[in-house]
Request: fold
Amino acid sequence: MKNSLFKRVLSLALAAVTALSLAACGGGKSGSGSQAGGGQDVVDGVKQNLTIGVTSLWSTLSPFQGNNAQYANFVRAIYDRMGVFYNGECIKQAAESWEVAEDGVTWTVKIKDGLIDTADNKITADDMVWYIEESIDRALKPQFNKVASVLKVDDLTFQVVMKSDVVGSFELVMASTYVVSRAAFEASDDEFADSVVSTSPYEVVEFVSGSHLTLKKRDDYWNADSQEAIFQNNAENVTFQVISEPSQQQVALETGTVDAFESVTASLIPNFEGRDDYGLITNLANNGVQMYFSGDAGSPVANDVNLRKAIAHAIDINGLITTALEGRADALHDPAGPNLMGYVSAWDEEEYFPYDTELSAEYLAQSDYNGETLYLMSASFGSYSRVCQALQGYLLAAGINCELKLVDNAMFTSTLFDGSQYDMILVSAGGMTITNLWSNRFDMNAYANGDATGRRDEVLTNMIYNTWTQAGFTDENITSVHNYLKENCIAYGLYIPWCDSVYRTESRISEAPVGASGAADFVAADFQ
Reply:
């Protein structure tokens, strides 16, 4: 057996992700009592009632989801996984062990004995083989597209054969494989839409899509004695409350409706800075925010590189950050953020679609654009509406007609990979490695209609394939992809936001670990 390069290199990358992370990133200081849970309800370090504000939840609790928010804190509360990204590596959760053969693609996984879900189903290798095969068939997560086959070895052992020796691909599959009983799932008449049967530390008490998720801690959780910080469950009753409107986020924190908020809208931060009754945690987010151009043949931007460049050079990214984000973001120099493994720091010194109205006009004149209305799509929560309005203003000033399609999270998720629904789309995408992000967005074989926008670029796809093997994961190959993306303006990396988490000091939060999403996991916090 041989060790994967992934663990050695990812340990450096994820250490940075932990420090520079997404949506509520870090620990805090102690205090005493809030209306949401109250400091007085901390018993032996366990908070009896904890309410956490979030900007969104899944639209359904089904374990078969796309990559959107798969590393969010609420997910780990309702689904265990084979492995979890934390503190510099992919650590085993439901897996007892895994080993890779000398061929670099054949992995043998042994699951822990005694995994029992809330319906008393014992989890076996058959369940995990079914889950991975079902994930491949549903094609909702491109990481499963890299699996060639999966088979049972014995009741507690299965084997995963990857299509190629791709840096980090197996670990990403393990982190995307939820521990679910096939019998329980098939017995559900709605695929766990609002009630989950799993091995997780919490049971679902109530779920209302777009509103809240209420959980109760299990007394018989199999992993209750784990010493890993990210697996601690220090709240008895937890509610994740969706509050997307910025003014309501402020009200919720000020009135004690929530104990903490994972990612507060940037414009609200001055209201909480320098106050003893609130703790503020600020880091760089894990995910950047990018504008992707549709690759669908029916879109005017799909095959018109001059139009795409006219759009990119019409945008004053620094002005957008100042006006729409209160200055709480950094400009990107690639669709990938600087904290992903494989990012080349020299790119930060390059020009990256500088704001230039004259150059934008030149590209527009060379394009086939005839005044058509272009549609910019985005989820409507948080800061995205303001960002889209700023982008629309820049395009209109450049003589490019732009109409906004701001939709709720459910609609956004359902149309995210359909390039026929937009000409441009605002997406917050990240990953553990730069090649992971690129392959999820630009691999023409990842989705039924091409890449994530419906584009079929064989040259780009093959270039990405060249980067993701352990031998090909070099600065030279990675920079070739970066240059191709920039020269053809297939996407425009806009900004990487600062991540601001606010909590009430009365909630008695001492510190909280940071998971792969970058969000401070308040469920696992120390309460003093």
In short: The longest helix spans residues 5-19. Residues 1-34 have pLDDT under 50 and may be disordered.
